[in-house]
Specification:
The chain is of the alpha/beta class. 45% of the residues lie in helices and 13% in strands. The protein folds into 2 domains: 88 residues; 193 residues. A 9-stranded mixed sheet has the order 2-6-5-7-4-8-9-10-11, with helices on both faces. A two-stranded parallel ribbon has the order 1-3. α1 crosses α12, α3 packs antiparallel against α4 and α10 runs parallel beside α11. 48% of the residues are buried. Bound molecules: guanosine-5'-triphosphate (GTP). The site of guanosine-5'-triphosphate has 18 residues, from α6.
């Protein structure tokens, strides 16, 4: 699931996350490690095939309109027109739609395709190729042994905290020790929610009632280094890009994290709700302008009719001439519903 640099991560079996040291005043102590583990079977044991089935099911609403285009008998302008409408309906956006149609026409010509069913296969190839640059593993571990700091942002309800909880679980079971920072200092429920994930995973959490989110993040990075943690994950409060003061707060968190560790944050991740389609793309642009994102997590691809947004994001990243990988995608609320993004699997699931 991750590309883990440290040797110890490759050892067989699951390293137990280390117990935290005596907690400082601001820290909520994790419960006894005897606490029952969160949910079902470990991801490593969850067959990729079952995940692919869930992905296919999740994308059915998006895919059914697209695949219906290929039920005719001829490859003609009507087919391309219908495909254009279907791609736009799937929130692929005008640029990516035009790009895919042009690319598809070239592929159809080169393959001398004569049946719509062949065109469907060629479209899957075109989508997979467009999405390919989004596929990249998240690298955890630093040559100097310091913690990899992940800063996580997004609008309210996008799935940040849940994603962090799932990632923590996956990381812990890969042998990485994690420390969480509850940088939403204003909403008690948000801290509690992160605290539940910390409890479930038996990892320590730096949290503060009120106060400055940047200060909590600063403390967490220092604590992560002092305690030899492999990963520090900073959960920030949800915000809209239009809330300029809150976007300034995010920038400040990033700056202050940098003060605690000049090479951090090593990843600035935006969590987006795949169900929000083009709106999610607008969020990517706005958060990127404020923070320079290094990666994305797309949640709630279960039951969405807007799965084409990944193509729109790929097109945007292409224009930026920058890799902004989609490290993970989510198709549900269970631990194993968050998995790495694979361009070809996604394209195949979309058109299955
Ligand atoms: N169906 C589905 N639900 C999800 C997925 N990921 C997260 N959720 C749910 O989305 C809801 C919001 O998730 P949170 O993790 O609380 O979102 P957040 O971004 O931290 O929200 P704020 O703290 O308000 O900013 C929760 O009910 C999650 O269980 C997913 O992939 N699919």
């Amino acid at each position: 699931m991750f590309s883990l640099l440290k040797k110890k991560f490759f050892s067989s079996g699951h390293a137990q996350p280390a117990l935290p040291e005596a907690p400082p005043a601001t820290e909520a102590a994790p419960p006894a490690p005897a606490e029952a583990p969160p949910t079902p079977a470990p991801a490593a044991e969850a067959p990729r095939q079952s995940w692919l089935n869930r992905l296919r099911n999740g994308l059915r609403k998006t895919g059914s309109t697209l695949t219906s285009v290929f039920t005719g008998t001829q490859i003609d302008e009507t087919l391309y027109d219908e495909l254009e409408a279907a791609l736009l309906m799937a929130d692929t956006g005008t640029q990516a739609t035009q790009y895919l149609l042009d690319d598809l026409r070239r592929r159809v010509k080169a393959a001398k395709a004569t049946a719509p069913a062949e065109v469907k296969g060629l479209l899957a190839d075109a989508i997979a190729e467009l999405l390919q640059p989004l596929q990249k593993p998240l690298v955890i571990g630093r040559p100097d042994g310091g913690p990899t700091v992940l800063m996580v942002a997004g609008v309210n309800g996008a799935g940040k905290t849940t994603t962090i909880g799932k990632l923590t679980w996956h990381l812990s079971h890969s042998g990485a020790s994690v420390l969480l920072a509850a940088a939403d200092t204003f909403r008690a429920a948000a801290r509690e929610q992160l605290g539940v994930w910390a409890d479930r995973n038996t990892v320590d959490i730096i949290s503060q009632d009120g106060g400055d989110p940047a200060a909590v993040s600063f403390d967490a990075v220092n604590a992560g280094r002092a305690r030899g943690r492999d990963v520090v994950i900073v959960d920030t409060a949800g915000r809209l890009p239009t809330q300029l003061h809150l976007m300034e707060e995010l920038k400040k968190i990033k700056r202050v994290v940098q003060k605690a560790d000049a090479s951090a944050p090593h990843e600035v991740l935006l969590v987006i709700d795949g169900n929000t389609g083009q709106n999610a793309l607008a969020q990517v642009k706005a958060f990127d302008a404020a923070l320079t994102l290094t990666g994305l997590v797309v949640t709630k691809l279960d039951g969405t009719a807007k799965g084409g947004v990944l193509a729109a994001i790929a097109m945007w990243a292409r224009e930026q001439r920058r890799a902004v990988p989609v490290y993970f995608i989510g198709v549900g609320e269970q631990l194993e519903d968050l998995q790495t993004f694979d361009a070809r699997e996604f394209a195949a699931a979309l058109l299955s």
